[in-house]
Amino acid sequence: MHPAPSVIIFTTCSGLGFGLLIWLGLGYPAVTGWVAFAFFTIAYVLAVGGLLASTFHLGRPERAPKAFTQWRTSWLSREAWCSLAALLTMALYGGGLVFLDTRWSGLGLLGAAASLATVLTTSMIYTQLRTVPRWHTPLTPALFLSLSLAGGALLAGQTVIAIWLLAFSGIVQIAHWMRGDGALNASGTNIASATGLGNIGTVRAFEPPHTGTNYLLSEFVYVVGRKHAAKLRVISFALMIALPIALLLLPFNHLFAALAVLSHLVGVAASRWLFFAQAEHVLGLYYGKR
Amino acid sequence: MTTHQPVLDTSPKVSDEIRRTTCYMCACRCGINVHMKQGKVAYIEGNRDHPVNKGVLCAKGSAGIMQHNAPSRLRKPLKRVGPRGSGEYREISWDEAISTAVGWLAPLHETAPHKLAFFTGRDQSQSFTSYWAQNFGTPNYAAHGGFCSVNMATAGIYTMGGAFWEFGQPDWEHTKLLLLFGVAEDHDSNPIKMGLGRIKERGARVVGVNPIRTGYNAVADDWYGITPGTDGLLVMSLIHCLLKAGKVDLDYLARWTNAPALVAPDGLLHRDENDKLLVVDRADGVLKPFDTKGIRPDLAATRDIDGATCRTVFQHLSERYLSSDHAPEAVAERTGLSAKRIRALAGELARVAFDEAFEINQPWTDFRGETHATMTGRPVAMHAMRGVSAHANGFQTCRAIHLLQILLGTVEAPGGFRFKPPYPKPVEGHPTPHGQGRPGRPLDGPHLGFPRGPEDLLLDDAGNPKRIDKAFSWENPLSAHGLMHMVISNAHAGDPYRIDTLMMYMANMAWNSSMNTRGVIDMLTARNDDGGYVIPRIIYSDAYSSEMVAYADLILPDTTYLERHDCISLLDRPICEADAAADAIRWPVVEPDRDVRGFQSVLVQLANRIGLPGFVESDGTPKWTDYADYMVNHERRPGVGPLMGWRGEGDSTGRGAPNPQQLNRYIENGGFCTHHIPDTAQYYKPWNAGYQDWAVNLGLYDSPQPYLFSLWSEPLRRFQRAAEGHGPHQPPDHLRERLKSAMDPLPVWYETDQTGNDGFTVNALTQRPMAMYHSWGSQNAWLRQLHGHNPLYVPTKLMRQHGLQDGDWARVTSPHGEITVPVMEMAALNDNTVWTWNAIGKRKGAWALHDNAPETAKGFLLNHLIHELLPPRGDGLRWANSDPVTGQAAWFDLKVRIEKAPPQTESQPVFPPTGSPVPDGPSELVWKVAD
Amino acid sequence: MTQLPEKTDRKLGLVIDLDTCVGCHACVISCKGWNTENYGAPLSDQDPYGDASGTFLNRVHSYEVQPEQGVAQLIHFPKSCLHCQDAPCVTVCPTGASYKRVEDGIVLVNESDCIGCGLCAWACPYGARELDQAAGVMKKCTLCVDRIYNDTLPQEDRVPACVRTCPAGARHFGDFADPDSNVSRLTAERGGMDLMPEQGTAPVNKYLPPRPKDQIAKDIDVLAPLLAPVDENPGGFLGWLDKALEKL
Ligand SMILES: Nc1nc2c(c(=O)[nH]1)N[C@H]1C(S)=C(S)[C@@H](COP(=O)(O)OP(=O)(O)OC[C@H]3O[C@@H](n4cnc5c(=O)[nH]c(N)nc54)[C@H](O)[C@@H]3O)O[C@H]1N2
Ligand SMILES: Nc1nc2c(c(=O)[nH]1)N[C@H]1C(S)=C(S)[C@@H](COP(=O)(O)OP(=O)(O)OC[C@H]3O[C@@H](n4cnc5c(=O)[nH]c(N)nc54)[C@H](O)[C@@H]3O)O[C@H]1N2
Ligand code: SF4
Ligand code: SF4
Ligand code: SF4
Ligand code: SF4
Ligand code: SF4
Ligand SMILES: [Mo]
């Protein structure tokens, strides 16, 4: 799949943003006033910024409100509802913290749940796609959720839990990669089933239907070199998991904490780039590409 | 929440009006319904009533709208101001354009008409353009058939009075076995596809003989991936097997062919004093005229003539093809096909032709006066095109295919191959060639024709060719379509003489339609010592900004096919079907929005201004104002004109006085006219009295002309005899041996001239992509997305051998040139053949394409590797890369060497851009005629 | 409506005959022509005279198939929306723009509701949807819904543009819910198949597989009487000829 910057920014930032909101909703850290304001600003910039970025992906962004209509079947619609619910609830909750110094913990819990649900729905948009075998696994929500919680914890300054969550996300990430590499082959969908010609012999794509590119090729067929991907995985893992853990294990220092957050953010972005770039859509089989 | 389906208007109005005309996205001439909205072309679909396409339309046809609005359309007459090739022009008025042309042409007409060479390309008005050239008085006229498929046309006419091309068709409704030789797309594009569909529907079998398995050959039930240039071997081997098994139609051969004729010692057929062919009647053993009523011609007869024992043609041919030289085992290796598969194909031919024979209950009467109660079906059909004919042994190979058909008794039999009117028409029904130019007067007769013997060649007293292309000379005696591919190189060499003006129409000679493209460009721009051009003047008519435009001095911009009158006439290449005569018109369904004119009308205007005989009355007043006027009012013979329909009072077909309402009648009828052949005349047309009478009535000929198929070709034998030293007309010595073998009266196979090909062993071919038409397609926004560049397809074996992988680049070399191009692997391909799509590569600057157009970067032509002459042979002569019989350009004899090359950013060679008279196209298309 | 109907009254769709398709792209361009001028936004082309890329609702691929024994085969392969019964493209749509019609099962995009999120194209395994770059909305085969019921057209023209134009007659249109329809019968007779059945989309369109190829040498016994030599009898070929002529 084409690693579009808009979706990478969206999933990375909103994942972190909602992750932070989850922790804030739960009361970690239990801040109020201007400190709370600062935390909430960071969370909203990330979450709303991510959501806004995602609308760049739309052909007709001005119609975005229509996306709320199909919550009964569409994960994208559910995501819209959840994010709206999370942002509104947390705004109220945050308002209490910042302006009234009051913590409505019930509301916070509700907001945290909605934030968690938002991340879940986002991940389900990808998970539900049978057409992308690499994504079509419970490991996808596990990955999104664990990273969101870990990143949120990091931002929320919950060092200990962040270390554990980061380690856990690291395991999920490795599992996702390992499973992902064999996913298309294991899915049972191949050029033989795509064309129905497999029982005659070995099928190979010959002339493409058009010599130039088109929406399908530019959106769904993206080829990353094996070596390049392997290198990126190492970098992403180091930045997203290893370096932040190391920094957190050092005696606490604001600079280190900030570095850990930054490193994690960049690492997640790299991981997301790979998440898309390495995902093979089955339609590529028709073009003899994967 | 949207819980309800939107309400849809499922009956929107499609258009304001439908205008029915004829497609010209290719030469197939399908009927189209042009849907108009607000006076604009909104949508094009096939015309269901039309005899050619019956409603279907190919990709090109549907994309007509993008041709019609192409940004590459020329807008105004142009006069060159920069040097040739620079593409620098001045836009001029039509007055100036016509005056300029008249200023150049009128003096030539008056003094030396042969100094004008007028050659046309893909046009469909040859009876008109040749009429113009004939009245100009120049011998130098032809259309493009000489490089296209003249082998196929002449071999058919000389053998059976009709040819494949689109001049005949398999009996799609009855055939059970179709053999397709060397066809990728054909001129009969939609009819072949429709026919294949019908065959598939009926569960009949298609066998594709082709080095490449794409398109028709991909749907073929069996594929024979033959080595290029060896079809003659295969076919004669099939003939061998069939003769050996006695699986030939003796009755058919005896009645309808010259198989029972006796071959006299001079190799000509035995005739009486009135030149009538004689055959032995098996009933009484007496020699009688072949058309004697009740005769049973004896294929086994012998007679003593002039002191020698003479045998029949059938015995000669049996002897030749029964020889073990023609056994499958003897040809297997050279053809690349196993002996077993060759035998199996022969067996299948025998089985279907004879075991699946059937009768149609339709009485008919033959030319001898004998009535037959039924028509016997032999459901084996064959079709062949350029894969067979574009080789230097193509003429004889085409003849071999016809011989095979005739031995099986399938030509004009139900289930076999059927002629379309105006065919059948034997050699005798065609004119001989004419080439005597006379200042101020018309040529002495039609340019193109069918020589009967050496006396019909167009040579002057010194034996030099009369025509600039050397057609009808000893180098290629039966060049019935001329040799367009030799015109520029001969004119440049001044051999046989220099010309003054080259006028071309609809032929992209500076690019894809030339062999040796770079060389041709150099010839077009070559200068004499005095600085003038070697070819002093070039007039060109194109509708678009093609590569050729940059090389003309005066450009006469044509309309698009939706903006002009055209005439698809029975006088040249009509749209007949096997069961009906048909012709058609085009008419301006929209008016041009540019200052352009239909070229035929421009020719009329030029002729009027020059005062060409034939175009003006004796007092100099013009007969016709434009082409539409000519289409209606011209008469070739009294009562016979370009269009057959609605003549006289509007009630006669074929013959009748001009009818001023004729074009309106055509338009009302959908742009065409059909005239059905009666049931009793549907088959056996050359011998069917009913058909002959029908054809005379329609004006196809003036008296019945039944004839026999020429298994033994006397015209060929006459040339062969001359080469042997007999007769007053003698070839130059260096051509004798070649003529002796090539002009064999029975089909032969010979290896094409391999001079200079040492080390070049891989065959290189092109194929027509179904969705593109030569160079035109690339200006079409929709079509060019399908074929924007072309890889060289390389068989698996050669890919391995050269360490190549998909997307790698290869250097491809011929004795003449070198190209470097991207490659792709193909398994369903002859092991020793590479190929690519034809005419995809474009020159930068042409066709209003942007700089980043893939056609100009990755696209390429094979033409750079093909030369119009064979490599030097050391005797100081360079022989033409053409069939020695017809002059057919041997495109597919190309032999190359390939090797891996480093990756490139562009296919090599890269030509500098030409200047363009039109601006680039828009950067986005959102095409819709708003409601 | 984004939910799929439980059942549609009719099941309209196409049968594509892979044994007959010659790969001419006629269906591709007639589809482009019709749908540019009709249903919804025109199908746009970007950089149409340069490195072009445009929206098409129907595309013709080709595949080379190498059997274990014998020569390779080439199959032309047209592909447009298969109007799946369990269309994943419909259920993922957040706006309800994508829907499957209850009356005939046609899967359509209501362009005025589409936000161009592309998710439906992600969900379609077949690459049957293309986002138009000029209009920003999703385009897909409409099964020519504006032709097949169009009473301004003659009855015989109320078929999809691609079916009407296909020169080889490789495309058939009809109602799969009716077991006696042309498409149902062809599917039954010729073993019509689904593409990617494992994706669980239950496509309506069916593909007729190519018939077995390159069978002549199997069908014909080259030693059978069919090709028995006649010139090995006394008198050789001429002797046979004489006798054969007598029998005429
Ligand atoms: N390598 C290789 N080369 C080949 C062949 C091959 O098989 N292999 N085939 C050869 C054969 S058979 C042929 S026929 C030639 C074809 O080659 P060409 O005859 O050159 O055919 P086109 O490229 O179609 O060019 C015809 C010209 O007509 C112009 N034109 C189009 N429509 C109109 C119109 O309405 N009016 C006017 N006045 N002009 C118009 C086009 O713009 C174009 O410049 O190519 C030959 N070249
Ligand atoms: N779409 C489209 N239609 C066209 C044209 C076009 O440009 N586009 N051009 C028109 C013109 S001008 C012409 S002349 C016709 C030509 O129509 P075709 O005669 O079909 O010509 P080509 O496409 O040159 O195909 C030649 C075929 O012969 C095969 N071949 C080559 N050498 C041999 C051989 O030695 N033996 C055998 N058995 N096969 C061989 C090639 O593989 C190829 O399949 O098409 C016309 N129709
Ligand atoms: S075959 Fe295609 S391009 Fe040629 S005339 Fe017919 S519809 Fe037009
Ligand atoms: S129009 Fe028919 S034959 Fe041509 S590509 Fe489409 S389905 Fe195949
Ligand atoms: S083919 Fe694709 S677009 Fe069409 S219904 Fe099936 S899933 Fe949806
Ligand atoms: S692109 Fe349009 S039709 Fe497709 S899922 Fe998004 S809103 Fe629905
Ligand atoms: S049914 Fe209509 S929209 Fe669908 S592919 Fe055919 S022509 Fe295109
Ligand atoms: Mo041609």
CATH architecture of the largest domain in chain C: 2-Layer Sandwich
What ranges of chain C have pLDDT less than 50 throughout 5 or more consecutive residues? none
Query: What composes the largest sheet of chain C?
Result: 3 strands, mixed
Residue-averaged pLDDT of chain C:
95
> What's the total count of β strands of chain C?
11
How many structural domains of chain C? 2
Shape of chain B: globular
The computed structural class of chain B is: alpha/beta
**Under the CATH scheme, which architecture of the domain at 78-143 and 433-557 in chain B would be assigned?**
3-Layer(aba) Sandwich
Query: Which chains make the largest contact?
Result: B-C, 114 and 97 residues
Rg measurement of chain B, Å: 27 Å
Structural class of chain C: alpha+beta
Number of helices of chain C: 8
Order of helices and strands of chain C: EHEEEEHEEHEEHHEHEHH
Oligomer: heterotrimer
State the share of residues found in helices of chain B, binned by percent. Answer: 10-25%
* Head-to-tail CA distance between termini of chain B: 31 Å
Largest beta-sheet details of chain B = 7 strands, mixed
* Main β-sheet, spatial strand arrangement of chain B: 5-4-24-23-22-6-7
The level of helicity of chain C is 10-25%
Write the layout of secondary structure elements.
The complex is a heterotrimer of chains A (290), B (931) and C (248).
Chain A: H1 5-26, H2 33-55, H3 75-99, H4 105-127, H5 139-155, H6 159-187, H7 191-195, E1 202-205, H8 215-220, H9 226-249, H10 254-277
Helix pairs in contact in A: 1-2, 1-4, 1-5, 1-10, 2-3, 3-4, 4-5, 5-6, 5-10, 6-9, 9-10
Chain B: E1 17-22, E2 31-37, E3 40-46, H1 59-62, H2 64-68, E4 78-80, E5 89-91, H3 94-111, E6 116-120, H4 126-136, E7 141-142, H5 145-148, H6 150-160, E8 168-170, E9 177-181, H7 189-202, E10 205-209, H8 215-219, E11 222-224, H9 231-244, H10 250-256, E12 278-281, E13 286-289, E14 302-305, E15 308-311, H11 313-322, H12 328-335, H13 339-355, E16 358-360, E17 364-365, E18 371-372, E19 375-377, E20 380-384, H14 386-389, H15 394-407, E21 417-419, H16 484-493, E22 501-505, H17 517-525, E23 537-541, E24 554-555, E25 566-568, E26 580-586, H18 599-610, H19 627-633, H20 662-668, E27 672-676, H21 689-698, H22 714-723, H23 733-742, E28 762-767, E29 792-795, H24 796-801, E30 809-813, E31 818-826, E32 833-837, H25 854-857, E33 895-901, E34 924-925
Chain C: E1 12-17, H1 26-37, E2 45-46, E3 53-54, E4 59-66, E5 73-79, H2 88-91, E6 98-100, E7 107-109, H3 119-123, E8 129-131, E9 138-140, H4 145-148, H5 161-165, E10 171-175, H6 182-190, E11 206-208, H7 216-219, H8 236-247
Parallel strand pairs in C: 1-11
Antiparallel strand pairs in C: 1-10, 2-3, 4-5, 6-7, 8-9
The complex binds ligand MGD (2 copies), iron/sulfur cluster (5 copies) and molybdenum atom (MO).
